[in-house]
Amino acid sequence: MPDLSKVTCIEDLRIMHEKRAPRMFYDYCDSGSWTESTYRANSADFQSIKLRQRVAVNMEGRTTKTTMIGEQVAMPVAIAPTGLTGMQHADGEILGALAAKAFGIPFTLSTMSICSIEDVAEATNRHPFWFQMYVLRDRDFIERLIDRAKAANCSALQITLDLQILGQRHKDIKNGLSAPPKLTLPNIMNMMTKPAWCMGMLGTKRRDFGNIVGHVKGVDNMSSLSAWTSQQFDPRLNWGDVEWIKKRWGGKIILKGIQDVEDARLAVESGADALIVSNHGGRQLDGAPSSITALPAIAQAVGKNIEVWMDGGIRSGQDVLKARALGAQGTLIGRAWLHGLGAAGLAGVTKALEIIHKELDLTMAFCGKTDINTVDQGILLPDTFPRA
Question: For residue 221, is pLDDT > 90?
Answer without folding.
Answer: no
